[in-house]
Amino acid sequence: MDKLTYLSNADSSYIDGLYQAYKQDPNSVDFGWQKFFEGFEFGQSSEGVVVEDENVSEHALKEINVLNMIHGYRDRGHLFTQTNPVRERRKYYPGKELETFGLSEADMDTVFNAGIEIGIGPAKLRDIRQLIEDTYCRSIGSEFKYIRNPEKIKWLQDRMEADRNLPKYSVEQKKRILQKINRAVVFESFLGTKFLGQKRFSLEGAESLIPALDSVIEKGADLGVQEFMIGMAHRGRLNVLANIMGKPYKTILSEFEGKMYKQEDPELQFGGDVKYHLGYSSDIKTDSGKSIHLSLAPNPSHLETVAPIVEGVVRSKIDMKYDGDSSKIAPILIHGDAAIAGQGLVYEVTQMSKLDGYKTGGSIHIVINNQVGFTTNYKDARSGTYCTDVAKITSSPVFHVNGDDAEAVVYAINLAVEYRQKYKTDVFVDLLCYRRFGHNEADEPKFTQPLLYKLIEKHANPKEVYAKKLEAEGSIDSKYAKEVEKEFKDYLQTQLDAAKAVEVLEDEVPMFGGAWKGLRPAKKADIFKAVDTKVDDKAFLSLAKEITSLPKDKKFFRKISKLYEDRAAMIEKDSYDWAMGELMAYATLLNEGKRVRISGQDVQRGTFSHRHAVLTLEDSEEKYAPLAQVNGGDKFNIYNSLLSEYGVLGFEYGYALANPQALTIWEAQFGDFYNGAQIIVDQYLTSAETKWKRSNGLVMMLPHGMEGQGPEHSSGRIERFLELCANDNLIIANCTTPANYFHLLRRQLVRDFRKPLVVFTPKSLLRHPKVVSSLNDFTSTNFQEVIDDTSVKAASVKRVLFCTGKIYYELLERQQAEKRTDIAIVRIEQLYPSPVEQLQAIHKKYSKAKEFIWVQEENENMGAWPHFCRKFRRTDIEFTDVIARTESGSPATGYMKQHVAQQEAIINKAFA
């Protein structure tokens, strides 16, 4: 021949790898490949692998073309599938025509050795093409060639090509699939008929999700999964609750009837939530007799927000319940197509999937792909080809499946579960379907998608499609589908009749069971009840020595060794700084058998280089954590997080939700940065107890304080958190001593109830010479919500300055410098719940004072003042004035001189 034939770059490395192996040892490749390579010489070019022998036969060159075709189908076959149930797919070029691969119809009956590649040996081109067409271009399109692990690629190829016509399901298995789809379809139509116009965000058009989830549970149980944690938004949630989770139909129908849940204690504030946001948990038996625990996380309307919560819950259970074995529990995240492509949180959660601090052994992602987001067309919802393109960042396989092909859906989801269990990585199933009605049942979709909805109107539902298929193949007779439909519809009617007789709903999933057993909801009287957080002197000193002693056989940086020497010296001096107060809180809890988990950006060292909880050896990458040696060393975990606030805070909230016996902490790099996770704060931290009866003991640490570092490194936005406070839903604190901080952290686990704690931590005070505590402060006192001024006599005081946090030490410095005995400085350490009775006692104590002034370094429209101004107005503890920076839209100035002048003005005014 007078020309050279090239393979595409996509396949060149594959062929070249085989050829290199053949050259070293011909017997290292299959016999067919040996024959294939005989007489060939391969070289490399910028275009790919080139056959250099110009005398090679045309047939031999076409062998390469057939291989190219096989790899082309594996790589791009997903672009040419029959996966869209209601409309034609977009066209992609080049296509999969024979000519694309240098072949023609004349070659169809020619036998090619390339059939070896797909496991059928030498075969006609017709048969080779049919096999890869059936595998990669029917109801399932698979994306996996970008995976960088050849073993995973081969496993997927072998499985799919061997199962090219899908498994042969038994008649009983087919009937089970039909029954599950029937329940999904009838349930939705029943609700739509009986509760006309009520919002339910129906699953109609995507009912094959139900047999998919049913199969996940059955298959997963056979592969060793004991528990599934599901997170999903509102679309189809009621169907999942009823037909997968086993929430009684009567209960769901009672909610539609407007029945309320029983208020066991009128003092406990429970506002509830709409029915398609509620969570549930249950225990079921699979067909093979295995017990499986199912949980569906409650979720807000913010799409994808539940995803990191689910991951955190699963990781918590892996650590606490399954001894690190992720194969026994699996997260299932159900997305919408617009949300998975549009919400940046999905990227954050996906990037967490392989990180030591956050991995859960792989998540099963299922996309309910309606091909529209509310009213937005899919072409306007993303720039990528698929909504699942985020899967590529972690080399996770994707299966695109026609939602009308129930058996293909079941096959794909089973393959996904197998892959997850085998390789412990994420896997995505893109369920191509449609939304039969609008975004909600009162919506008119034809306003924005008239052509699509004309097609949908004429389209049979998935049950009708599958029943017709089964009837055609003889698996069922013409009466079977109608009988199962009538039977279930009649059952739902009996449940509706029963629901109408219900007066008050009973909570079927109490909060305080399982890991929460022994805990209880908090009551008003509990909030200020004294909590004993003291520790024994000897135990404290012993632990202090243990966590400040470094092993002699490890070489640390000199600065680190000096730091730990200084910490050890604190024991002798009886003067403990902020870092030691914090670390001792962890050490004492660990010593009591509790778990401590901390994560956030740079938390191991600490943004301000104060913590040094994990040390890196000088001459290696080895890590050493003194706290991890306490009490067996298996319950202290501290992880530098990825650069994420939203995803990581959600994860830690989920972790704390599943394990209330762990002190779970998220620390922001700077307090200002928490607002990247504002949705978690609003939708979970502050309101979950009211909406879903779900308590949580998560701790948020937000470094806060005006120090001339500009508007982005000053404020944790105290005012925003206080604005969210009501009914004792949060604890907001701003401590000024290491010991008080120590007791505050310990109190989180010592109490028999849980509340989220938001604590504004210092920056400059970390090394302030006056910010120290003695042994007695740790071992003889408890947390103090208010710290009074012990340096003045009450009868001499004419002005009382109230403050919180760092500014206290600046006020103290001026008070001492001027020897002002007529001014008292009172610190409020717990801003919320506000210590009203203690403040009343202080007002009474300073009865001779004429001025009770609130002093803060924040702007007047920020900090604690707006809350206290509102909370204490027209009471006997109303402040007579406020001293603060002037109102501003920005938290702080970026100019140091201006900052110093403003700070000086506040102090001057306080003592004027």
Strand order of the largest sheet: 6-14-15-11-10-7-9-8
**Span from first to last CA?**
101 Å
Radius of gyration: 33 Å
Main pleated sheet = 8 strands, mixed
**DSSP strand (E) fraction?**
5-15%
Shape: globular
Number of helices: 29
Number of strands: 29
- Average pLDDT, rounded to a whole number, is 91
Helix content: 25-40%
Low-confidence stretches: 1-12, 43-49
Class per helix and strand makeup: alpha/beta
Explain the layout of strands and helices.
Elements: E1 5-6, H1 9-24, H2 31-37, E2 42-45, E3 48-51, H3 58-76, E4 111-112, E5 123-124, H4 125-136, E6 140-143, H5 150-162, H6 171-194, H7 209-222, E7 227-232, H8 237-243, H9 249-256, E8 280-285, E9 291-296, H10 306-320, E10 329-336, H11 337-342, H12 344-352, E11 364-369, E12 372-373, E13 376-377, E14 398-402, H13 406-423, E15 427-432, H14 450-458, H15 462-473, H16 480-500, H17 537-547, H18 558-573, H19 578-591, E16 595-600, E17 615-616, E18 623-624, E19 636-640, H20 646-658, E20 662-667, H21 678-685, H22 688-692, E21 699-703, H23 718-723, E22 731-733, H24 738-750, E23 757-761, H25 775-779, E24 786-787, E25 799-803, H26 807-818, E26 823-828, E27 830-832, H27 836-845, E28 851-859, H28 865-871, E29 881-885, H29 896-911
Parallel strand pairs: 7-9, 7-10, 10-11, 11-15, 14-15, 16-19, 16-20, 20-21, 21-23, 22-23, 25-26, 25-28, 28-29
Antiparallel strand pairs: 1-3, 2-3, 4-5, 6-14, 8-9, 12-13, 17-18, 22-27, 24-26
Helix pairs in contact: 3-4, 6-7, 6-15, 6-16, 7-13, 9-16, 10-20, 17-19, 19-24, 20-21
Pfam families: 2-oxogl_dehyd_N (PF16078), E1_dh (PF00676), OxoGdeHyase_C (PF16870), Transket_pyr (PF02779)
EC number: 1.2.4.2
Family: Belongs to the alpha-ketoglutarate dehydrogenase family.
